[in-house]
Amino acid sequence: MIKNTHQIKIVVFLFLFISLCIPSNIFAEDANAYPIKIQKIEVILPKDKQVLEKGDTFTVRAKITDSVATITSCNVSFYLDIPEYWGNLIFVDLQETNDPDIYEGTYTLKEDKPYGMWKLHYISIYDSAYNSHDSSLIEWVDLKRNSLPIGFNFIDYDGVYDHNVTPVFIGEGKLDGKRFTSGTTIDRDGNYQLVITNPLGKEVTVPFLVDKTPPIISGVKEGMIYNQPVTLTYNEGLGYLQTQRFNYKWSSHGYGYMQTGYEATENAKYSLVVTNKTGAQTIVSFTIDMIIPSLNLTSQNTNWTNKDVKVSIEAVDKETGLAELIGPDGKKIPTNQKTYEIKKNGVYTFSAKDIAGNKIEKYIRIKNIDKTAPIMTIDGSTLMPTNKDLTLFIYTKDKESGIKYIHLPNGKKGEASLKSYKITKNGTYTFAAEDSAGNKTTQKIKITNIDKEVPKQPKVNKVTTNSIIVSGYAEKGTTVFLYKGSKRLGSMVADAKGYYIIKIPKQKKNTVLTVFTKDNANNKSKSAKVKVQPFK
Questions:
Q1: Ramachandran assignment for 295, one of left (phi > 0), alpha (psi -120 to 50 degrees), beta (any other)
Q2: Domain spanning 217-288: which CATH class is it, in words?
Q3: In degrees rounded to 5, what are phi and psi of residue 127?
Q4: 200: helix, coil or strand?
Q5: Rounded to an integer, what distance in angstroms lies between the CA atom of residue 254 and that of residue 252?
Q6: Does domain 294-366 match CATH 2.60.40.10?
Q7: pTM above 0.70, yes or no
Q8: CATH for the stretch 459-531
Q9: How far apart, in whole angstroms, are the C-alpha atoms of residue 317 and residue 327?
Q10: Mind listing the pLDDT tens digit for each residue in 86-139?
Q11: CB neighbours (10 Å) of residue 163?
Q12: pLDDT digits (tens, 9 = 90+) for 230-246
């Protein structure tokens, strides 16, 4: 009998009315295959008892159904979840009662048992048809070490917790050497050591860890992309690193466990999972991409042209992708743009940068643009009348692409080395100089000074031995020449009416005088002859 509340007790904590509602889907739906089903188990303590001691009796009641036979035997066991006491079990046999499917058993503590929370451990059931059910209750009961039981509790030996801890015990306690009262909540992270002195004067030392803060990973940030190696550090727990290497196809490569301070150097996608003792995890995914993008520039036209030149742009980054493409003017080009127009010759620099920040620069030299027309000058005697063909002299110049053709008035193309062109008659003549880029300079020249037509034969009036002039009519504007033999006697230009008069000294009878004309082009008419007549 217990004499008073201070009586030395053998303290054994049991679950207060542990109810296990077993899901029906744990067992096969075929009742003939699994006829025995556990519906409920509960522990009933003596009235007004919260802590058992030697001599106390408790009851275990279970609801068990059997679809094919009657239960012939059933027993359950309890154990204390502290490694140093493993093997110290309590067995309770259950018997049928007057209520259908209800089986009960009692157990009286006849010896001292270790102090702590005793938990349901195992159940064994047989029926009259030799069906059996043998299983550890841990298979369907949540008995995680970091979950404190409901009611009076005893902290698991070497326990770790990710939440506040409220140790409840009977006796005196010291936490890390300082007095500690049962029912006090520990809300700060840390490693603790609780020493409990039970009413028998025995000490139980329980180390445990409270860690509500997930591990902290340093050196990298979630979702970041780096273009250099990174050092991975974390403040607690154990890290597991997994990578997906960059390749034509993604290839996975699990690194496995790693210690803090590991340097990640490969180009890959990484996932670092750090788990502490409480099971709390921190996951950081990041990428290392130290591979510069590829950038190729190709001119679509390498021949001389008088148009803008398109440059083909091929910018690729197979790892993290392109972030930006910068043109020669410093402005951004859409990363999917395939061409860029160059308007004049020069050296043009392009740059590409990927999302990781790797950058590449390349330049292209454009030297085949010529938008300037050639210089062309045509020279020749185009003012002075002539009765001969004219020769025009052609001068061309092009500093960039050079003269390719000289287009002639006759529709033909002359070589660039052509320097002259013969004109045989008056008219308007068009010349063009074309350079190798297709630029043209056109020049028209009007020729009016070619005169190959012979003037009409002049008419001469009668000349006598008393005449001091020779007169007559010729083509107006022509120059009339008067000769006696090879001697020139005179000349004059026929007036607007064609009349001319040339002074002469008196001539002898039968002297033959010759008159002819020349125009401005030096065309000579037929000569007209006149014989000097006696004066009468």
A1: beta
A2: mainly beta
A3: -115, 180
A4: coil
A5: 7
A6: yes
A7: no
A8: 2.60.40.10
A9: 17
A10: 556 788 999 999 998 999 999 887 765 655 566 777 889 998 888 888 776 544
A11: 13
A12: 999 999 889 999 988 87
